[in-house]
From TrEMBL:
Protein name: Branched-chain amino acid transport system permease protein
Tagged with keyword Protein transport: no
Organism the protein comes from: Allorhizobium borbori
One Gene Ontology cellular component: plasma membrane
Membrane topology, record value: Multi-pass membrane protein
UniProt-listed InterPro entries: ABC_transp_permease, LivM-like
Cellular localization per UniProt: Cell membrane
Keywords: Cell membrane, Membrane, Transmembrane, Transmembrane helix
Transmembrane residue ranges: 12-34, 40-60, 72-91, 97-116, 121-138, 180-201, 231-250, 265-293, 305-324
Length: 354
């Protein structure tokens, strides 16, 4: 995404990324004052969750080439771990969020170890099988684990899941404006996740990830340890995905097996593909487009899914590099057509000196 400049200072692409980030932060800060509808603000919070999950799947597949389909399983693991810590140990949600994310990371590392000898579609099949096994274990959990009053609760909550185990504290602190407080927390989570992802992608570690994706044999020959790199990217992606799962459970005060549905996973993949696989801003752009399209087609009934499918299919056919890639191509085309690009090196230098 970022090409290092030959001169001193920060590259032009890095400056552009910084400007985009500042504009987005300014927009995020002013958004609660511009949006009066609680429903719209709630949908924006949900979109931030989608963008966070998609950004980490993009790190895993778009930048590292690991085609894992366990992303929603890791998200659910983080949410369930947070809810279960609160429910069984009586901890505050804030005290359970990091342990829940660490539990999701450990789960992901186990999945990563299982995938080490596999590549391509075999990784996808194994991770999908793990996610489906997790779903079946939860919904078929009917054995009584603990009595809550006169109600028997399963260890995993069964098909019902967990509810009312705690929240982020904004309902008590801000009363009727609690949703604005939750929005600020989730927006901060997304910002921190994106900053950390950017640092990873631009670091030598990120270079190793991309090398393993583009040419594994060459990368290994140059000294990149595939075992360590794969486990590392699994762990990094899982921590923030699991943390998002914990915040999701706390925001809605509930977590159930529905988050493991295939439709949720496909929506996350579609977000990344439409936005631009392997591009830093792709997940955010894809989230905006697909969530907005989904909302506009809410009244379309059974044609809603069909409409989303058409949008995804057209994006894949007409924009293989996604919207971000298409925008990048357009910018480069305009630069080539600009009068300044037609000048010679001496004319450009003279114009710059003025």
């Amino acid at each position: 995404m970022t090409k290092l400049s030959t001169g001193k200072g920060i590259s032009g692409s890095a400056k552009l990324d910084a400007v985009i980030a500042l504009v987005l932060i300014a927009a995020a800060v002013t958004l609660p004052f511009m949006v009066e509808s609680r429903y719209i603000l709630g949908q924006i919070v949900l979109a931030l969750f989608y963008a966070t999950i998609a950004s980490q799947w993009n790190l895993l597949f778009g930048f590292s080439g690991i085609f894992s389909l366990a992303q929603m399983a890791i998200f659910a693991f983080g949410g369930y771990a947070t809810a279960m810590i609160c429910f069984y140990f009586g901890l505050n949600v804030w005290a359970a969020l990091v342990p829940g994310a660490i539990a999701a990371m450990v789960f992901s590392l186990v999945v990563g170890l299982a995938c080490l000898r596999l590549t391509g579609v075999y990784v996808a099949l194994l991770t999908l099988a793990i996610a489906q096994a997790m779903y079946l274990l939860i919904v078929t959990d009917t054995e009584c684990f603990v009595m809550v009053g006169s109600i028997c609760r399963q260890f995993t909550g069964g098909a019902v899941g967990f509810a009312r185990f705690g929240d982020l504290g904004m309902r008590t602190l801000l009363k009727g404006q609690w949703l604005v407080g939750n929005y600020a927390i989730i927006a901060t989570l997304f910002t921190v996740t994106m900053i950390f992802t950017y640092v990873v992608v631009k670091s030598p570690i990120g270079l190793a990830f991309r090398a393993l994706k583009d040419d594994p044999a060459y990368a290994i020959a140059r000294g990149v340890n595939r075992f360590q790199a794969q486990l590392l990217v699994f762990g990094i992606s899982a921590f923030f995905t699991g943390l998002a799962g914990g915040f999701y459970a706390a925001h809605f005060q509930a977590i159930g097996p529905g988050v493991l549905s295939m439709s949720q996973l496909m929506f996350i993949i579609a977000i990344t593909v439409v936005g631009g696989l392997g591009s830093f801003w792709g997940p955010l752009v894809g989230t905006i487009v697909l969530v907005l399209a989904d909302e506009l087609m809410r009244e379309a009934g059974e044609f809603r899914t069909l409409g989303l499918g058409i949008i995804i299919a057209l994006s894949i056919v007409l924009m293989p590099k996604g919207l971000v890639g298409r925008i990048g191509d357009l910018v480069r085309f305009l630069r080539r057509r600009s009068p300044r690009s037609a000048m010679g090196p001496q004319e450009n230098a003279a114009l710059t000196a003025k």
